[in-house]
TrEMBL record:
PANTHER family: ALKANESULFONATE MONOOXYGENASE, ALKANESULFONATE MONOOXYGENASE-RELATED
Source species taxonomy: Bacteria, Bacillati, Bacillota, Bacilli, Bacillales
Chain ranges of the Luciferase-like domain: 27-336
InterPro entries linked to this entry: Luciferase-like_dom (IPR011251), Luciferase-like_sf (IPR036661), SsuD_RutA_monooxygenase (IPR050172)
Entry-linked Gene3D superfamilies: Luciferase-like domain
GO terms assigned for molecular function: alkanesulfonate monooxygenase activity
Protein keywords: Flavoprotein, FMN, Monooxygenase, Oxidoreductase
Protein name according to UniProt: Luciferase-like domain-containing protein
GO biological process, one term: alkanesulfonate catabolic process
Length: 377
């Protein structure tokens, strides 16, 4: 059965994307003049709507424009009952032993609802602002070692470790997480990122792309993992734009960027050109290649938000039935986790929980899924 994940907009929210109040340093975030500021009350409503709507996990992102992921997750414990919290953390800013204690404490207080998303990168300017000046390849080596140490802290009683980035003597963790071997979520489209995923991650996270692109990418990761005698779980992420008709859905999609500031679009293009992220460059190229087709890159698949968003920006656009059909197609490639979000976030996930998730489950129960799923498993 597929699990649904959504994300808390801990950087702000609104009904228009790419407007002049957009944060110029982080293109997936608003400044403090956001239409909806990321208050605890608003994020709590999102968490409760997600739990009610059939989402199993809430991602709390990390970054210089976000509220702290662990603090927000902790504040949401009493507001929810079953929802799991996937909080993002960057190696290098927190020692693995310190983060392991934070994770285990949260897992204990929440009754076993903690998950972690290891995030290696970010824009060079943002990383420099936080004091991280390692190059791309070195950051991924550090990530690999961070995850290995973290897993040992979760599972072993005492151990010594001496590596390139971390040295621990008689390391231990008390209490251990309630969960046995908590899953490590990780994403990275570069060769270095793929190697880390295949070697030490448990869930490989991808941003949505065309079916052909994703088929190729998931196949490559599966081969890399198989060489290492490992098998991963896979997550794919999309924005969602719904309408009662397909025509209305496309109108709603265009509405999102109807007030986009040309300066924001230009800054996003410059960031994509100068940045190191292979994943961002892939999405940017999809957007450029589809410009003459109104950014439509496939059935109900749209790259229009990629003009102004950094990161997860490919959108599923259509009626609830159409969006459910597209999700089922991606599940057929081997994804057992699907992350869905939209603008404004609260209304989008309420609609997805009410109109899309039940349709996906019904289609999967009827085995309405492409036969190629068996090819990749």
């Amino acid at each position: 059965m597929v699990e649904f994940i959504t994300m808390a907009p801990t950087f702000g929210d609104g009904q228009y994307v790419g407007t002049s109040n957009y944060n110029a340093q982080r293109l997936d975030a608003w400044s403090t003049t956001a239409e909806r500021e990321p208050t605890l009350e608003y994020i709590s409503r999102i968490a409760q709507a997600a739990e009610k709507g059939g989402f199993g996990t809430l991602l709390l992102p990390t970054g210089s424009s976000c509220l702290d992921s662990l603090i927000i997750a902790t504040a949401l414990i009493p507001a929810t009952e079953r929802l799991r919290f996937l909080f993002a953390v960057r190696p290098g800013f927190t020692a693995p032993s310190v983060f392991a204690r934070q994770f285990a404490s949260f897992d204990y207080l929440s009754g076993g609802r903690a998950l972690v998303n290891i995030v290696t990168g970010g824009s060079p300017a943002e990383l420099a602002g936080d004091g991280d000046f390692l190059d791309h390849a070195t950051r991924y080596r550090r990530t690999d070692e961070f995850i290995r140490v973290l897993k040992r802290l979760f599972s072993e009683e005492n151990f010594d470790h001496e590596g390139e980035f971390y040295k621990l003597k008689n390391a231990s963790l008390y209490p251990k997480p309630i969960q046995k071997n908590p899953e490590i979520y990780f994403g990275g489209a570069s060769e270095a990122g793929q190697a880390v995923a295949a070697s030490v991650a448990d869930v490989y996270m991808m941003w949505g792309e065309t079916l052909d692109n994703i088929r190729e990418r998931i196949g490559e990761i599966q081969r890399l993992a198989a060489v290492r005698n490992r098998k991963l779980s896979y997550s794919i992420s999309f924005q969602v734009v719904l309408g009662d008709t397909e025509e209305q859905a496309w109108e709603n999609a265009n509405h999102l960027i109807s007030k986009a500031d040309p300066a924001v679009i230009q800054k996003k293009a410059e960031a994509s050109d100068k940045g190191e992220s292979v994943g961002l460059k892939r999405l940017h190229q999809l957007m450029l290649d589809s410009k003459e087709n109104h950014f439509r890159i496939g059935p109900n698949l749209w790259a229009g938000l990629t003009q102004v968003l950094s990161g997860n920006s490919i959108a599923l656009v259509g009626t609830p039935d159409q969006v459910a059909d597209r999700i089922v197609e991606y599940v057929g490639l081997g994804f057992d986790k699907v992350l869905l979000r939209g603008f404004p976030h609260l209304e989008t996930i309420e609609a997805v929980g009410r109109d899309v998730i039940p349709r996906v489950h019904a289609k999967l129960q009827k085995n309405e899924i492409p036969s190629e799923r068996g090819v990749l498993h």
